């Protein structure tokens, strides 16, 4: 700040830190009722904030909405694949779009730069250009992306270790298996 001037304030859609923290906990808690309440709060933020809504918040909400719909039992398998698929495609496209330069850079390279697992990019490619994958793979992709969002965005906003968890070997192996499954479906 310059001498004599007050620091600039940033206007945000949430009331304060407590509301932000409450929504983050609600989104990641696993209880569909609390997740729906958090989704409703994010919708209110979006109506206030519009295009200024952080991409990570928007992507998290879309993915959690898929999980809530999945747990409700109201959608058929094919509808769930499409729902998860759209959320995953949007996540990869929106997160990597910011790193795109004037020259087109391959998504795999951009994903590596931001530590998105390559098999998630392959899943996005399959959803966009190939045969639709199995629901189990879409669910796994959703879980991996939500974990990535929690670690790289939400926990940084909290400024503490609440969300810092190491990926265990079983999760890494599942990612390798999912990637292998995608590569077995021969596509360019």
TrEMBL record:
Q: Write out the ranges of the annotated region (Disordered).
A: 165-188
- One Gene Ontology term from the biological process aspect of the record: maturation of 5.8S rRNA
* Gene that specifies this protein: Las1l_0
Q: Which domain of life is it from?
A: Eukaryota
GO molecular function list: endonuclease activity
Kindly list the organism's lineage.
Eukaryota, Metazoa, Chordata, Craniata, Vertebrata
- In Swiss-Prot or TrEMBL terms, this protein is called LAS1L protein
Q: Name one GO cellular component term.
A: Las1 complex
Sorted alphabetically, which InterPro entries does this protein's record hold?
Answer: Las1
């Amino acid at each position: 700040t310059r001498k004599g001037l007050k620091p600039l304030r940033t206007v945000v859609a949430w009331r304060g830190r407590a509301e932000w923290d409450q929504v983050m906990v609600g989104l990641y808690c696993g209880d569909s009722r609390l997740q729906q309440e958090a989704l409703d709060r994010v919708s209110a933020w979006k109506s206030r904030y519009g295009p200024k809504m952080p991409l990570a918040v928007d992507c998290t909400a879309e993915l959690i909405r898929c999980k809530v719909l999945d747990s409700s039992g109201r959608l058929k398998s094919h509808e769930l694949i499409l729902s998860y698929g759209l959320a995953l495609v949007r996540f990869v496209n929106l997160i990597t779009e910011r790193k795109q330069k004037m020259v087109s850079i391959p998504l795999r390279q951009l994903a590596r730069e931001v530590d998105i697992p390559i098999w998630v990019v392959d899943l996005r490619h399959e959803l966009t250009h190939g045969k639709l994958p199995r629901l189990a793979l879409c669910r796994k992709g959703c879980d991996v992306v939500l974990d990535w969002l929690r670690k790289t965005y939400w926990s940084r906003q909290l400024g503490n270790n609440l969300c810092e968890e190491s990926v265990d070997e079983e999760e890494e192996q599942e990612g390798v298996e999912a990637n292998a499954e995608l590569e077995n479906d021969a596509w360019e």
